[in-house]
Amino acid sequence: MGSCGTMDLFLIRHGVTEWNRQKRYLGYTDISVLREELRTLDQLRRSLENTTFDKVYTSDLIRCKETLEYLKTNGEITADKRLRELNFGDWEGKTYLDLKEDEQYQRWLLNWEMEKIPGGETWSMFTTRIDSFLRERFANIGNGRCKHALIMTHGGVIRYLLLKFKAVNSFWQPAVRHGTAYRLKLIRTGGVWICSSLQEVPAPEKENS
After folding, report:
1. Is the dihedral angle over the CA atoms 29, 128, 14, 94 positive or is it negative?
2. pTM of this prediction?
3. How far apart are CA 50 and CA 139, in angstroms?
4. Host H or E run for residue 181
5. What is the pLDDT of residues 164-209, one digit of tens each?
């Protein structure tokens, strides 16, 4: 993916929406963030204000665009629909309680990497489009001049990217909270980008002992 030896990549999950608050499945449905929740991003905005990003990529869905606009990051912005969340199809807007008696839903919970969501995506379809983004977009920023890049996207996409760059060992390992950036220090080894360190921005506050 280019000739850049090292790079810092920031992965940010969009702000909270009403469906997030209600724990509804939210994939391709295009709804706004809750305006009253945006102020929770102030600390993240301050943490990023002195960083100039060589490239900024965002999902084309409005909740990501609104979050990025609020953060006022520096850098050329490119929207790409391949950075969308998993398409939950017929389950969009529904909760676990709505679906728990659905046999197909139960099969998906047990084997989500193989079962197709009705009207939505399989795991393979999801990862294939993200890999396509990485090949066609991300490769272009590995040119030696790129030191900082940012991707504004969704929880599932961030989990996959963390796994893809070997920042974590499991898709379910990171919490991937709203209003947090995950800063990956990437090193290009053998033509492949690998994460050498992972840091949350802003750093989580330590609990009093």
Report:
1. positive
2. 0.92
3. 25
4. strand 181-189
5. 999 999 888 878 999 889 999 998 877 788 899 999 998 776 544 3
